[in-house]
């Protein structure tokens, strides 16, 4: 990555942050205490997540940790 590219990304992030009322970023995804059971088996237990506008976010974890279930809930594929 060049220094110019990096600086342009930082400037874009600063602009996105400052354009909101009061200089506060707006959450585009926010999950509070999300739990999901399949029968009696827990798939998610009290998951919390907040991603604000302009942020880059990686969703990683071991197999069976609920990544796909969380995404499917967000996409309204399962309830």
SSE diagram, text form:
Blueprint: H1 3-18, E1 27-38, E2 41-52, H2 67-74
Antiparallel strand pairs: 1-2
Give a verbal description of the structure.
- The structure is a single chain.
- This protein is an alpha+beta fold and 79 residues long.
- It has 2 helices and 2 strands, in the order αββα.
- Strands 1-2 form a two-stranded antiparallel sheet.
- A hairpin with a 2-residue loop joins β1 (27-38) and β2.
- It is elongated, with a radius of gyration of 17 Å.
- 0% of the residues are buried.
- The mean pLDDT is 76.
Short description:
The protein is an alpha+beta fold. Helix content is 30%, strand content 30%. A hairpin with a 2-residue loop joins strand 1 and strand 2.
Give keywords.
79 residues; alpha+beta; two-stranded antiparallel ribbon; 2 helices; elongated
- How would you characterize the largest beta sheet? 2 strands, antiparallel
Q: How many DSSP E strands?
A: 2
Quickly give the structural class: alpha+beta
Order of helices and strands: HEEH
- Order the strands across the largest sheet as they lie in space: 1-2
Estimate the helix proportion, in percent: 25-40%
Mean pLDDT: 76
Unreliable runs: none
Radius of gyration: 17 Å
Proportion in β-strands? 25-35%
Distance between the termini: 41 Å
Number of helices: 2
- Coarse shape: elongated
């Amino acid at each position: 990555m060049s220094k110019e590219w990096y600086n342009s990304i930082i400037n874009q992030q600063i602009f996105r942050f400052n354009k909101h009322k009061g200089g506060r970023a707006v959450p585009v995804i926010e999950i509070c205490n999300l739990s999901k059971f399949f029968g009696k088996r827990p798939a998610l237990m009290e998951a919390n997540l907040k991603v604000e506008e302009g942020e880059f976010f990686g969703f990683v974890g071991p197999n069976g940790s609920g990544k796909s279930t969380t995404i499917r809930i967000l996409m309204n594929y399962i309830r």
